[in-house]
Amino acid sequence: MCKFFFSFRRTTYREFAQLFEQEEKVDGFVDDNKPSGQDLQSKYGWYSILYSLANENILNIKKITLIPIYETLTFLCYQMDYQQEMRKKQNNSIV
Questions:
Q1: Closest by alpha carbon to 23, among 12, 14, 13, 32?
Q2: What is the distance between the alpha carbons of residues 9 and 6, in angstroms, rounded to a whole number?
Q3: What is the secondary structure of 20-65 as a DSSP string?
Q4: Which of 32, 48, 74, 95 is the most exposed, having the fewest neighbouring CB atoms within 10 Å of its CB?
């Protein structure tokens, strides 16, 4: 059972690396302006992700946890890429 778990974990981390990176990046670079101390993500870990996916409604958290993990991780990756693309477009329209 442990071999399966570690294999699943290793594969998942590799396929969804952008979700598991520890450093916060802005436009592809590490954000050095991040204040020291514990932020919400560090303190609550995955709960902050569940909270966001549940539209900040505790009644939706159970629904979110029933969605298959790869579907959820794929959605989160897409959401990150989409937000990054929108920031690029917004920055390009300002220039």
A1: 32
A2: 5
A3: H-SS-EETTEE-TTPPSS--HHHHHTHHHHHHHHTTT-HHHHHHHH
A4: 95
Q: Give the number of other CB atoms < 10 A from CB of residue 38.
A: 8
What b-and-e string marks burial along 66-95, b requiring 16 or more CB atoms within 10 Å of the CB?
eeeeeebbeebeeeeeeeeeeeeeeeeeee
Q: CA angle, 53 as apex, 39 and 41 as ends, to 5°? A: 10
Question: From CA 65, how far away is CA 50, in angstroms rounded?
Answer: 8
